[in-house]
Amino acid sequence: MIKKLTDKRLSEITKIPCGTIAGWKRSDGYKKDIYLFFKNLDPEFLIENFGAKTPIIPLLDKEVVGAIGISQGTLYGWKNGKGHRKKLYDFIAQFSAKEILDICAKEKDSINDKTLSKITKIPYQTLQGWKKYEDRQVLYKLLKSFTQEELSSFFS
Asked: For the chain, which terminus, N or C, has the lower number of CB atoms within 10 Å?
């Protein structure tokens, strides 16, 4: 006998947000059909086919979000963005949360803000905001701790 899935368990296995599943459940038409399709699948089948997939926000990203003081939505936007946002995500993704904090602890101020803005294509006002607000200072210090040449090679 196939065990029925709860919506929460379906969300955990498939990595589909609970809100999306709830929306499918309440709607009519094809969205309701998608919901019923998933609900009637064997949980083992779902685990086999969805369980090994990368979660929406990987654990590494959650650690980094906590370390640099940005929201998961912001990091997700950078990850799926273009231009300087995508490059910023790729740059940050090289490091673990511990490495980020270790690098920032050294507080090497090797580059001025105008040059940093020019190299990374991050607006100067954004950098000033990161510098000003304590919860964003880790990200600011991380970028400032690299030399102009190191940043140029990555963000070019």
From this structure: N
Angle, in degrees to the nearest 10, between helices 124-132 and 137-144: 120
Tokens of 136: 């964003």
Rounded Cα–Cα distance for residues 3 and 126 (Å): 51
Measured between alpha carbons, how far is 31 from 44 in angstroms, rounded to an integer? 23
Torsion angles phi and psi, residue 123, rounded to 5: -55, 140
pLDDT for 65-96, tens place per residue?
777 777 777 877 888 888 888 888 888 877 77
- 35 burial type by CB count under 10 A (0-12 exposed, 13-18 middle, 19+ buried): buried
pLDDT tens for residues 112-145? 888 888 888 889 998 888 888 777 777 788 888 8
Domain ranges, residue 127:
59-155
| Whether residue 81 is found in the same domain as residue 26 | no
Angle at CA of residue 41, ends 38 and 47, nearest 5°? 90
What is residue 99's predicted lDDT score, i.e. its pLDDT? 78
HSE toward the beta carbon, residue 126, CA cutoff 13 A:
12
Q: Identify whether residues 123 and 142 lie together within a single domain.
A: yes
How many structural domains comprise the chain? Answer: 2
